[in-house]
Amino acid sequence: EDQSADIVVIGAGGAGMTAAIQAVQDGATNVVIVEKMPQTGGNTTRSTGGLNACETSYQAAEGIEDSVGLFVEDTMKGGKELNDRQLVTVMAENSAGAVDWVNEIGGDLSVVGQFAGASVMRIHRPSDTSAVGPMLVKALNAKVEALGIPVLLNTRADEILVDEKGAVSGVKVTGPSGAYTIGCRAVVLATGGFGANNEMVAEYKPELAGFGTTNQAGATGDGIAMAKAAGADFVDMDQIQTHPTVNPDTQTMYTEGVRGNGAILVNKEGKRFVSEMETRDVVSAAILEQTDGVCYMVFDQAVRDSLKAIESYISAGIVFESDTVEGLAEQIGVDPAALRETMDVYAGYAQAGVDGEFGRIDTSMGSDLTTPGFYACLCAPAVHHTMGGVRINASCEVIGAAGSVLPGLFAAGEVTGGVHGANRLGGNAVTDIVVFGRIAGSSAERYLLANG
Ligand code: ADP
Questions:
Q1: Which of 372, 212, 386 is nearest to 303 (CA)?
Q2: Using the 8-state DSSP alphabet, how is residue 452 labeled?
Q3: Among the atoms of ligand 1, which is closest to the Cα of residue 42?
Q4: How far apart are CA 6 and CA 197, in angstroms?
Q5: HSE value, Cβ hemisphere, 13 Å, CA-based, for 235
Q6: CA 215 → CA 45, 141, 211, 299, distances in Å?
Q7: Which of 125, 259, 280, 438 is catalytic?
Q8: What is the C-alpha separation between 374 and 6, in angstroms, rounded?
Q9: How many helices (H) and strands (E) does the chain have?
Q10: For residue 376, what is the enclosing H or E element?
Q11: Which residues contact 398 (CB under 8 A, 6 or more apart)?
């Protein structure tokens, strides 16, 4: 049976649900979300870190001095200057508003922490130290429901239809009842990345063939294929990020917050080998250079108590633990004297607030790692985020291969390229989806009004 809507949002992850809510908040009355999986949330549900934002009331309350300029520079540096500076600036300028918006719809981002690549404490997280993704998806789900926005689950978008003038006219989908068309005048493409599609990953970055991934099964790059067929242009498709601290057996990602709150990385020889707060590309490359291409992330009880996520790793059985450093070393097959030496030297650095070996940022040395028990997690890099994607402008309009806007087609989130350049900073994905999800929703509604 064919249907119609004003705006069809493809993908019910963070960017898609945000866009749908914002469009309705701006006055749209007939918005439909299609989601191919049996549930909403996408990779956003798996997001553990938080939302980077500058010049917020929460930073001010802690006396943290930050600015749009500093946020932009950190993000450009992290992305090796490959980022689209205009998009990065839009993200930074709207970041404080994104925190407020999430809190207004019932979310909780009120504690500020330190993440890699950030010059100051900038990542905003839930007050109960829990992971950001489930909190955000729960708030978005509730708001989508409260606003009465239909979410068609188990419904995959297959094709974006355009009319003879090249303007969006509908979406072909396959749902539980079979294939049908939803006629519409605007589409927000929010299908996420392609990290779970190793064939596609390897096509753009051959050295990642066979790598594991932190991504949910639906992150297969459908949106890239649909946008290509609709005539979109693409940027930075070969820029694919690995997350450095992923359990190689279970593919569980240990959030960067464990390091941000104090954990160190040691190799099989029991030695540190990099500043744990370097960007993900640098830490990943350093791990691959160690014996067997793996390392252990080591922390103490104080770090465990600072982060709820750690409890889930412990109950999953993927954390070694012992009352003593030597006992821990024996469990992981590292020379106890070597690990003892590393821990003693590091304790001195943490107490002095200066990492004499690798220059790790002092705000990430919250523990001197001397409080029993002691913990270790086996880590190796796995495919995490696809930085490249559909080319958009600052209004989230999709740019066609010929350089002009594709009328009625908008995109936001991981399906787009340009915001993160060659390397995404932890905490910037959630900023990306909230800031650009909102802009895409507003732009789609404005397009409808202008093209009455
Ligand atoms: P972002 O962080 O950009 O919001 P997510 O991974 O959180 O990305 O969400 C993207 C969502 O889009 C996922 O829930 C995914 O299952 C969904 N999706 C991907 N491809 C399609 C498709 N062809 N049709 C409908 N939904 C899709």
A1: 372
A2: -
A3: 14
A4: 31
A5: 21
A6: 10, 20, 12, 26
A7: 280
A8: 56
A9: 15, 20
A10: strand 374-386
A11: 189, 227, 230, 232, 390, 391, 392, 405, 406, 409, 410, 411
Q: Among all chains, which residue has been given the structure tokens 């600072």? A: 306
Pocket of ligand 1 (CB under 6 A): 10-16, 34-37, 42-44, 156-157, 190-192, 218-219, 222-223, 413-414, 433
Q: How far apart are CA 412 and CA 193, in angstroms?
A: 11
Question: Which residues, 6+ apart, have CB-to-CB distance to 285 below 8 Å?
Answer: none
Each residue's pLDDT tens digit, 47-68: 999 999 999 999 999 999 999 9
For residue 138, the CA-to-ligand 1 centroid distance in Å is 16
Report yes or no on whether pTM surpasses 0.90.
Answer: yes
Kind of pairing between the strands at 405-411 and 186-189: parallel
| pLDDT tens sequence across 341-355 | 999 999 999 999 999
Domains within the chain, CATH numbers bracketed: 3-194+387-450 (3.50.50.60), 242-383 (3.90.700.10)
Q: Which of 301, 265, 270, 300 is nearest to 280 (CA)?
A: 265
Lookup: tokens for 155: 């419904």
Number of residues in the chain: 452
User: Which of 35, 154, 189 is the pocket-test mutation for ligand 1 (most atoms within 8 Å of CB)?
Assistant: 35
Chain-centre distance for alpha carbon 426: 7
Segment (H or E) for 95? helix 95-104
User: What's the pLDDT tens digit per position in 118-177?
Assistant: 999 999 999 998 899 999 999 999 999 999 999 999 999 999 999 999 999 999 999 999
Verify whether residue 280 is a known catalytic residue.
yes
- Per-state percent for the chain, helix, strand, coil, to nearest 5: 35, 20, 40
DSSP secondary structure, 247-269, as one string: -TTT-PBPPHHHHHTT-EEE-TT
Q: 200, 156, 22, 13: which is closest to 97 by C-alpha?
A: 22
Q: How far apart are CA 44 and CA 136, in angstroms?
A: 8
Q: Tell me the ipTM for this assembly.
A: 0.99
Asked if 13 and 44 count as a contact pair (C-beta separation under 8 A), the reply is: yes
Asked if 91 and 54 touch (Cβ cutoff 8 Å), the reply is no
| Bond before 373 cis per omega within 30 degrees | yes
- Distance, in Å, from the CA atom of 277 to the CA atom of 192, rounded to the nearest integer, reads 26
Q: Which residue among 36, 173, 226 is best mutated to probe the pocket of ligand 1, counting the most ligand atoms within 8 A of its Cβ?
A: 36
